């Protein structure tokens, strides 16, 4: 690859590309809210036009039982590997709106950062892959590899319909490597290739007591309080050091090798800086594991919210009729979400206080994922990062979940390369989401180079 020519192309077209990305970001493609259904189709149609414009072929919108999938390809590199690029065009809701410094769907550039919902997660990163194809086709009239795109509209709601789509379109999606840019870097100027993700299992616990709210003076002390009951259930889940007390929860956890733990230690994670960055005085978690290990290779059980009773101004002496809590577990390789949910249900049933009834609703599930970090496709990504950023690439795991990644691994049986360009500080899923344009600029060059590196993987 003529890196100078590619670099010049992106410099010459930077403002045009940013204007195009801003148009994409103005579409409020919030997958979780029904009032944005038309916007979801608008975003998919925008992608179709953008992909056709850069020279991709067989571009189409495929309907699912939910929001549509966008597919495109270019398959003229005879004898070369096929790269399948996955991403998503849906975004998170923007609440609380009053915390945004600028309107979430009116992109603004401030301090060389692009502010908008979806700028980092994941419209900006999807857009970069499309523009890398544009640059190489404009400069060379061909690509070094065959390429396919599958861009969905339901990642932010757990990709409920994509596994079925992948299962039914295995021939269409046949490839040698899957590349996903929906993860982050280690920090400013510190590129990372992620090779492992935790899985996910979520439930809601609804505790019900009397048929209606009761006066705490007339009935307090004689009737079980659902809020106290739910606190008792929650308290039973973990000990004081965070060790999960659910029977069998750790049975299938595979211990990480000493070599891999040494690799984590070599990353020289700055715990003091992290504590300062997120505003805590002490870290917390399982004894014998570092902050990085607790968030990458250990399973968790976290309470995400509790509701019930009176929470307005002042006080109301009420004994509430019901209370509710939401819980999510992050899972590590070899743990099965269905098995974990079954164990959570059994635990709740065995720890349910007298005087209340309990209902459990299952939510998002996703299996954990792992590709060996010494896989050639993973190492090739590291080389591309290093050429552009000028520093060694870190090979990391990630504490979060991308549910479809495990499905890709299970259904298509391909190595998955997670090469993201976001930063943890970019507020994805929160007000004032933004994307550092330094990583937008460099990421375009990394992706372009990786397509040439991937061509050598025959």
TrEMBL record:
The keyword Acyltransferase does not apply. Keywords: Hydrolase, Metal-binding, Protease. This is Peptidase M20. It comes from the Bacteria. The keyword Protein biosynthesis does not apply. Residues 195-354 form the Peptidase M20 dimerisation domain. NCBIfam families: PRK07907.1, PRK08201.1, PRK09104.1. Pfam families: M20_dimer (PF07687), Peptidase_M20 (PF01546). SUPFAM superfamilies: Zn-dependent exopeptidases. The lineage of its organism: Bacteria, Bacillati, Bacillota, Bacilli, Bacillales.
């Amino acid at each position: 690859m003529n890196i100078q020519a590619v670099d010049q192309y992106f410099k010459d077209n930077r403002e045009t590309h940013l204007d195009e990305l801003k148009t994409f970001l103005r579409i409020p493609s919030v997958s979780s809210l029904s009032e944005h259904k038309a916007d979801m189709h608008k975003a998919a149609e925008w992608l179709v036009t953008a992909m056709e414009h850069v020279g991709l072929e067989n571009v189409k919108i495929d309907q699912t039982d939910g929001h549509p999938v966008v597919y495109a390809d270019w398959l003229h590199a005879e004898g070369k590997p096929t790269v399948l690029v996955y991403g998503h065009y849906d975004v998170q809701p923007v609440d609380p709106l009053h915390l945004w410094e600028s309107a979430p769907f009116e992109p603004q550039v401030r301090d060389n950062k692009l502010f908008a919902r979806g700028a980092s997660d994941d419209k900006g990163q999807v857009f970069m892959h499309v523009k890398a194809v544009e640059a190489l086709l404009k400069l060379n009239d061909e690509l070094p590899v065959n390429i396919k795109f599958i861009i969905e509209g339901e990642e932010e709601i757990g990709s409920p319909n994509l596994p079925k789509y992948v299962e039914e379109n295995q021939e269409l999606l046949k490839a040698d490597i899957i590349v996903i840019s929906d993860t982050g870097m280690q920090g400013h100027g510190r590129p990372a290739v992620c090779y492992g993700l935790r899985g996910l299992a979520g439930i809601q616990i609804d505790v019900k007591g009397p048929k209606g709210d009761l006066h705490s003076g007339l009935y307090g002390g004689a009737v079980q309080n659902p809020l106290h009951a739910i606190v008792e259930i929650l308290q039973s889940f973990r000990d004081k050091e965070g060790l999960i007390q659910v029977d069998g929860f750790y049975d299938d956890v595979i211990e990480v090798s000493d070599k891999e733990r040494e690799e984590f230690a070599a990353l020289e994670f700055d715990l003091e800086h992290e504590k300062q960055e997120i505003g805590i005085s002490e870290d917390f978690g399982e004894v014998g594991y570092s902050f990085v290990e607790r968030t990458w290779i250990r399973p968790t059980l976290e309470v995400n919210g509790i509701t019930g009773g009176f929470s307005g101004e002042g006080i109301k002496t009420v004994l509430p009729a019901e209370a509710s809590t939401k819980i999510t577990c992050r899972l590590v390789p070899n743990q099965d979400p269905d098995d974990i949910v079954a164990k959570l249900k059994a635990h709740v049933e065995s720890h349910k206080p007298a005087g209340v009834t309990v209902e459990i609703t299952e939510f998002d599930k996703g299996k954990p994922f792992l590709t060996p970090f010494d896989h050639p496709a993973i190492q090739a990504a590291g080389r591309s990062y290093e050429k552009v950023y000028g520093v060694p690439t870190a090979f990391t795991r990630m504490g979060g979940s991308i549910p479809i990644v495990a499905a890709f691994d299970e259904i298509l049986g391909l190595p998955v390369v997670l090469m993201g360009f976001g930063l943890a500080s970019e507020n994805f899923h929160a007000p004032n989401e933004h994307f550092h344009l330094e990583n937008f600029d460099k990421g375009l060059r990394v992706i372009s180079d990786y397509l040439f590196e991937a061509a050598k993987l025959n």
